[in-house]
Amino acid sequence: MKKFILACLVVSTIIACSPKTETASTFAAPADLNSYNLDSSANIDLVKKMVAAFEAGDSATYRSLYADSAIFHENGKDMNLDQNVTLFNYFKSNGITVKVDKVDPIWEIVNKEASPNGVTNYVMSFQQTIYKKGDKEVKVIVSVVNGMKDGKIVEEWDIYDTKPMLDLMNQK
Fold it and tell me: Which of 17, 107, 121, 134 is buried deepest, with most CB atoms within 10 A?
């Protein structure tokens, strides 16, 4: 028994001291895989940049991150990029400031097959936002899905509870 334990100790020491081999930095998806997730990517960085532009009220940067033909589905209401950007002026004219408390979790889904509009990559996120008007504030969690294509956001789905925001907007 002592020889067996000693042999295990020697083998584990040799394995622990062996030089590590480098692994490939790209992911080779198995042929039968329909999709996979990423926890970091250029598309995730782009969505984070979009969130920062939204929070800062920087409509020029915000607009530049979307395809000109981007479609938004905000709580089931469809709109184009121009209609979506008007929200910046609406918040500002109503004295509302936006702070994004955190974007977590956030991940990218890469699909093997493209949707009818050619999208294979979607960034999913939960954005915890704080809307403030005067000394009143409300916290709203927004579930966001961004369809990504050619380095731009081409479609976006936003779902959130509108009641706290409407109550805040209606305050004098």
Answer: 121
In the chain, what is the straight-line distance between the N-terminal and C-terminal CA atoms, in Å? 82
Which secondary structure element, helix H or strand E, spans residue 70, and what is its range?
strand 66-74
Contact by Cβ (8 Å): 157, 132: no
Q: Is the peptide bond before 105 cis (omega within 30 degrees of 0)?
A: yes
Residue 88 CA neighbour count, 13 Å, CB half:
17
Tokens of 69: 């033909």
Residue keyed to tokens 């002026």? 89
Evaluate whether 130 touches 101 at the Cβ level (below 8 Å). yes
Over residues 21-52, the pLDDT tens digits come to 444 456 676 788 899 999 999 999 999 999 99
